[in-house]
UniProtKB/TrEMBL annotation:
It is found in: Nucleus. It comes from Wickerhamomyces pijperi (Yeast). Transmembrane segments: none annotated. Belongs to the SF3B4 family. Residues 11-89, 139-214 form the RRM domain. Its main location: nucleus. Residues 93-129 are annotated as: Disordered. It comes from the Eukaryota. One of its GO terms (biological process) is positive regulation of mRNA splicing, via spliceosome. This is RRM domain-containing protein.
Length: 240
């Protein structure tokens, strides 16, 4: 008989005001941006089998909890603003209320008790590291099949036409050709560059342009989650 593992409260956050379309996999995709995620749980109504508008995310490291609070507080998913609260020992009342809500029919009453324990401070986080993480997130293009005669200066002059770059173009060599990473400040500009430059010729070779891979997750940048984070960064005037 397997023993149920207890969630590490100090490494967990409560996420409330969730739309019915939210799934555990979507929350996982969102919060893994802050750090390694151990588990995601959306307590479900015993009769309707639908989640009750809140859930819990457990991180591998307790240090990721505060970062997640700063980064994701105020993010909107399906038109609803997420309410995020550290579980931990200092929020035991909120945790107890949220846990008991899965066994009661008065969901609205329980939600209001949880919300009463959530922090009301909506000020922008002060961390420069957080700001930079948000601004850099995802707007990176990968360009390959470049002619061996292509230079960094030439690539920069071409791709700067579509928007401002937040750091210099990287130009690297492979066995038969060159490849490059182009770093934009926002998805509007990176989307435009992708649309205009994919399958175009630079010198004597047709280039391929796509979003770069996120090496940590093994998926391409440009996801909807990354775009939501960037939108929040722009709304709060985050800068490099």
């Amino acid at each position: 008989m397997s023993v149920k593992r207890e969630r590490n409260q100090d490494a967990s956050i409560y996420v409330g005001n969730l739309d019915e379309k939210i799934t555990e996999s979507l929350l996982y995709e969102l919060f893994i941006q802050a750090g390694p995620v151990i588990s995601v749980r959306l307590p479900k109504d015993r009769v309707l089998k639908t989640h009750q508008g809140y859930g819990f995310v457990e991180f591998q490291n307790e240090s990721d909890v505060q970062y997640a609070e700063n980064v994701f507080q105020g993010i909107r998913l399906f038109g609803r603003t997420l309410k995020i609260n550290k579980v931990g020992t200092s929020h035991s009342a909120a945790t107890t209320t949220a846990t008991s809500a899965s066994t009661t029919k008065n969901k609205n009453g329980e939600d209001s008790q949880i919300n009463a324990n959530e922090p009301k401070n909506n000020t922008k986080p002060n961390s420069t590291a957080n700001d930079k993480h948000l601004v850099e997130l995802g707007c990176t293009l990968f360009v390959n099949n470049l002619d061996p005669m292509v230079t960094q200066k030439l690539l920069t002059s071409i791709f700067k036409q579509f928007g401002e770059l937040y750091k210099p173009v990287e130009l690297l060599d492979s066995k038969n050709s060159k490849y490059s990473f182009i770093y934009y400040k926002n998805f509007h500009d990176s989307d435009l560059a992708l649309e205009k430059m994919n399958n175009q010729f630079i010198l004597d070779k047709k280039i391929n342009v796509d979003y770069a891979m996120d090496k940590e997750k093994g998926t391409k940048h440009g996801s909807q989650i990354e775009r939501l984070l960037m939108e929040k960064a722009q709304q709060n005037n985050y800068t490099l």
